[in-house]
Amino acid sequence: MDLFEQRLLAEGLRTIEGDSPTLSAGAQPNSGQKQVNFEKALLQRALQLDPQLQISALFLHFKRLTSRLFTLLAVLLAICGASTVQPFFFSGQGTQINFFWAFALFFIPNLLTLALWLLFFLRPSLLAEGWLARLSLFLLKTVEKRCDPLSIQNPHFWSLFKCYFKISFSGHLGRYQLSAATHLLWFSYFCGASLMLVIMLATHQVDFIWQTSILSAQSFQWLTQCLAYIPDLLGVAVPDLEQIQQSHLGVVNLLQDAQSSRFLWSSLLISSLMIYGVLPRVFLWLLMLFLLKVKRKQFSLNLSKPYYVQLRQSLKPNISALGVVDHDTVKGTSSVPLSSITPSQPLPPSFYPVALELSATQLSLCKKHVQQYAAQHIEPIMHVCDFSSQQILLAELPELNPQAVVLYVALSRVPDRGLLRFIKSLTSSTAKPFYLLLIDDGSACADINKRRSAWYALAAQAAISLDAIIQLTTNKEAQSL
Amino acid sequence: MSNSRLSVAVVGHANAGKTSLMRTLLRDAKFGEIADQAGTTRHVEGSAVVIDEMNTLALFDTPGLEDSIRLLHILSAFFAGQRVDGIERLQYFLAHLSQYSDLEQEAKVLRALLNNDLIFYVIDLREPVLGKYRDELQILSYAAKPIIPVLNFTEQGHANLQQWKTQLARLNFHAVVAFDSVHFNFADELKIYHKMHSLLADQEPLLHNLIKQRQQQWSERFNAAKEIVAKLFIECACVRYQTLNSEQEIEQTTLKLQQAVRNAEKKCIRRLLNLYQFRKGDLENSLLPVAQDGWPLDLFSADNLQEFGIKLTGSIAKGAGVGVAIDLLTAGMTLGAAAAAGGAVGALWGVKQRYYDEIQAKIKGSRYICLNDVTLQVLWLRQMKLLAALQKRGHASFAKIAYQITAPNQQTALPQNWDKWLRQLRSHPNWSSLNASAGERQDSKRHLFTDKICAAMAHE
Description:
The complex is a heterodimer of chains A (481) and B (460). Chain A is an alpha/beta fold and 481 residues long. Chain A folds into 2 domains: 3-315, no CATH class; 338-480, Rossmann fold (3-Layer(aba) Sandwich), CATH 3.40.50. Helices cover 60% and strands 9% of the residues of chain A. Chain A has 16 helices and 9 strands. Chain A has helices at residues 3-17, 31-34, 38-53, 55-89, 99-122, 130-147, 157-169, 171-203, 217-233, 241-247, 255-298, 306-315, 360-373, 387-396, 417-429, 448-461, and strands at residues 96-98, 207-209, 319-326, 351-356, 382-384, 404-410, 434-440, 469-474, 479-480. In chain A, the strands form 2 sheets. Chain A has a 6-stranded mixed sheet, sandwiched between helices. In chain A, strand 7, helix 16 (448-461) and strand 8 (469-474) form a beta-alpha-beta unit. In chain A, helix 1 crosses helix 7. With 460 residues, chain B is α/β, with parallel strands linked by helices. A 6-stranded mixed sheet of chain B has the order 2-3-1-4-5-6, sandwiched between helices. The radius of gyration of chain B is 32 Å and the shape is elongated. Chain B starts with a strand and ends with a helix. The relative contact order of chain B is 0.10. At the A-B interface, helix 4, helix 6, helix 12, strand 3 and helix 14 of A face strand 2, strand 3, helix 2, helix 4 and helix 5 of B.
């Protein structure tokens, strides 16, 4: 299966799965497959799912069907081309053939369809219209139902046919596929006609003439010479000027001249048919086949479609887990359940306030609170927020007079081991009772109960009585204790 | 070509949002454990952003630095009176860790600092600048690795932004990036990579590829999401159900219509959540209010006439074309009758294609119902709101995504061509697969319309 067929298979799978990739490919990619890029991975997935869904078998069936159809049409066109020779050239009226009329009957439709083909070729969007697909689908349905009813039992038969048709016969590929088919059919038509013409000319004796009512004789002479130019270059015997003039209305006198004229005009007609009819179509057919091959190689999947974006996430995840690289061997600290929290004690009349790691707003709230409840404290409140202030407090604490120490902390702050260690060292440095005052200034906190519980756990570990924890709740309108 | 990996240690104080940052950068809502307390992450855990088959960006989440004050004090006490670099102090500490068992978590962070190429120092911007944070930065500087301070929770901690920037500048950290792991902004993520790019000149190709890949994935995801939404809108705007003209029948058909549209919306939302790698549970439950209206078919509207005119001309041309071919095959003996007959058949076929269903419904005494304009407006605005929310949501976010529309008549929020779109869509009931008798969907035209809607969404 070449790359185009694999991509076609992937598109077929997308048609079956719909908007999102839902089917499981079974085998997980091994480490080697993990190194492949996304497109290769998705093609591999399509190949894995193909035996189960029979997509490629159906596509092969469609391919055979279309090639058979084209072959049939080519044969029919060849027969058609052959059958048109006799009524055009060898009518029962006589043995004279109007050369230019015969030539025009073959070439004017050819030129018209060539122009039509060029229009479609230059505007491939016209091929995207559904009418061709609908017509093909209708024909296929009719043929398949009659000839091969088993084949349509696949539940995805019609959707896959639409997918196959859309890729192969519309858009960029369709442009070349249909062009190749058009030229093939005309080639067949001309082959049939040429063959029949040779046979008829070999077995019939006809005289070639030319006639005109409104054009001058010189125009026809010039036209004939133009037509004969390439055959002449290729060594084909063609009528000269005198013979062209003599053929006007069949004015050939001598028997030998008539014989020679018949031969020359016949060879001109056959060679014209070959050179201006068969050869261009063969050339265009081969060119289109070549371009089709090139375009098939260039055919790519639109990986920005939602289906493929989702598939990328499952086949080639953006991340790969590296796991735990430095394990934890120590259990984390547990929090205190709120049910065990007892009501708070009132603050003692005299206490030493200590602000721990507060923001400017929290510190001002702390100061207000101190002014209200410890008016005797006239020194600036100690704000402990770094190593040096910690050391100063630890040095001063044993010598302080107040009955108790109140630690002002922010409820919104996460209590950490550093703070625990420091509070532990404070409580162990003096026998004075400690109070923990939690300032709730309304700062953002996902779960306030969990945070309060964490502070109670810290207090318990630092030997502060749980009933010595007080919460100071503030908001813009009021402050309450 | 050899495999290349750039590794980054994500460090910071406890509860600063290191795991949240990891989740958002990895687009993985399941990475690690997040809780509103210190010490949630207790081990170093890694995950890699896959850039391509050869290159990865490895990110390592670390436990929080909880006692930096003591750690710095210990580190400073080493090699007293000697001129020793910080990195040697860190190595000495790690070599004598058994003496400091209570600093085991900090030791893990120090090992991560030494083992990785770059450090993201995550700062909870809601916090004021405290001594312990200054000490953390001091310790980080000992590792002699490039450091990018990442300011997290910028939306809630905006007031402290300047204070932090000033403090970081004083400590010589200038490559600061504001990145909110909950209120996500892709431009901020790119800023992180650009800072990495400027700090790690030798990793230029890898980081260039990383930036390119992330941008590509982001735009791919957005484009895919737009397409999903546009398709839902087309499906719902083109849907119509045939019903008999009795109240009971209309009620029953309306229920069916409601169900079909709600299912289509659910499917679309599920796809969007998958696309952005969020979970179903991240979404707030919200039911689409569906109301029906009569299918508006104005035979003489400009859009209808234009559409019909084009189709009719096409059908006549096709019919006549076939006729001409027959005329040619018979060598003109049919005298052009085949062409004329083909044209007439084509014209009749065109009329049948366009108006057969409507005429048949009139004869049978039935009618078509569809979604009314307000329902379509609500549907559109809900998807727009959801899409905007998904674009701005970090994978660390716990808040539910609300996408209910309370005021449906938000004309200003609707696209400029809204009315024109509706008129056009209602000329194509065959574009909706929700219709029971959906025929050929004319995929090419439908795709063109989808692209048009996607383009309009991009401009919004």
